[in-house]
Design brief:
The protein is α+β, with helices and mostly antiparallel strands and 174 residues long. It is built from three helices and eight strands, in the order ααββββββαββ. The strands form two sheets. Strands 1-2-3-6-5-4 form a six-stranded antiparallel β-barrel. It has a two-stranded antiparallel sheet with strand order 7-8.
Length: 174
């Protein structure tokens, strides 16, 4: 969260600096700043705000659920397909979860034990996965959100709602 907030402050500071540099200058001399201000800045601000929102969602999940260790494997996919992970929560429940918002090769990402994963969340609705050590948390969601999920207790559903994994009966897939 601190890195994303610092990035947002940097974006806002760069915009203020560009505005001050272009203030009082003729339009012909400050056309680059105008183009930046009209086209690049809104996109940069939107991407930064979206990243901050998604980081807040990961933080919310980690506040509600503790890290737990599970065995896992990484089903093979074609190069264009999103990367997925299959986590064995129990003998009869091993859902395939995809990484979101971007595909990540978590098997190779600073992972000394690729057959073991740390997971925080609800196995029915997704959560956060990380190589052992918790140093690279990544949001994971069910690959098929419409697939049948095992029933949970009302307490499990309340925890998932509090962690914003579900809302209004729908699984949040971002």
């Amino acid at each position: 969260m601190a890195k994303r907030r610092a990035w947002l402050i940097l974006v806002l500071g760069a915009t203020a600096a560009a505005g001050c540099a272009g203030f009082g200058q003729p339009l012909r001399q400050s056309i680059g700043l105008v183009v930046f201000g009209l086209f690049v800045y809104p996109l940069l601000l939107w991407v930064t705000a979206l990243a901050l929102h998604r980081t807040r969602r990961v933080a919310r999940i980690l506040q509600v659920y503790p890290w737990r260790t599970y065995s896992c494997d990484y089903p093979r996919r074609t190069g264009e397909s999103p990367k997925v992970i299959r986590i064995r929560f129990s003998e009869d429940h091993s859902p395939v979860l995809r990484f979101t918002p971007f595909s990540v090769d978590l098997m190779r990402k600073q992972n000394p034990a690729p057959g073991t994963i740390w997971f925080a969340g609800d196995p029915r609705f997704g959560g956060v996965a990380s190589p052992v050590g918790g140093h690279f948390p990544v949001r994971v969601v069910p690959e098929s959100p419409r697939a049948p999920v095992p029933p949970g207790t009302p307490e499990d559903d309340a925890l998932a709602e509090r962690a914003e994994l579900i809302g209004g009966g729908q699984v949040h897939t971002t």
